[in-house]
């Protein structure tokens, strides 16, 4: 989520790091458990992992993560086509996003709209293509998402 702000120049590379030290989670009193959830026993306030380990909770947040959606169209392997998923991707975009450059952004979802700001700040001539009927289609209604 930090990469769009790196692209705008609002934060430096260090601001994209999730952990500032090897002891980051310990310093924040966060227990990290690696495993796959097999079952949630909400009445008992427990998450059961595939290996049988039970982890008790008071509140449960399900943060499933995401993967970039690569449109199934030809040409996506062209070196001029850039995803924005890793820091290296963002660094490459910064190299290419010079004032006056022409770019097409595929996607105007939540993250895409944040990335739009970086193009504007960098004075890139931008065209946005969104397959949905409006900007941020999964979050905004027809009026709010209208262009």
Task: Give a concise summary.
This protein has 147 residues and is α+β, with helices and mostly antiparallel strands.
Give a written overview of the molecule.
With 147 residues, the protein is an alpha+beta fold. It has two domains: 93 residues, FAD/NAD(P)-binding domain (3-Layer(bba) Sandwich); 32 residues, no CATH class. 22% of the residues lie in helices and 15% in strands. The protein contains four helices and five strands. Strand 1 and strand 2 form a beta hairpin. The relative contact order is 0.13. The model has no long low-confidence stretch (mean pLDDT 86).
Task: Please list the strands of the largest sheet in the order they lie side by side.
Answer: 1-2-3
CATH topology of the largest domain: FAD/NAD(P)-binding domain
| Estimated share of beta-strand residues | 5-15%
CATH homologous superfamily descriptor of the largest domain: FAD/NAD(P)-binding domain
Counting H and I runs of at least 4 residues, what is the number of helices?
4
How many distinct domains?
Answer: 2
Give the ordered list of helices and strands.
HHEEEHEHE
Question: Which structural class is indicated by helix and strand composition?
Answer: alpha+beta
What global shape is seen?
globular
- Report how far the terminal alpha carbons are from each other: 24 Å
Question: What's the alpha carbon Rg, rounded to whole Å?
Answer: 20 Å
Kindly state the percentage of residues in helix: 10-25%
What is the makeup of the main sheet? Answer: 3 strands, antiparallel
Number of strands: 5
**Regarding CATH, which class of the largest domain?**
Alpha Beta
CATH architectural designation of the largest domain: 3-Layer(bba) Sandwich
Nearest-integer average pLDDT: 86
Q: Regions with pLDDT < 50 over 5+ consecutive residues?
A: none
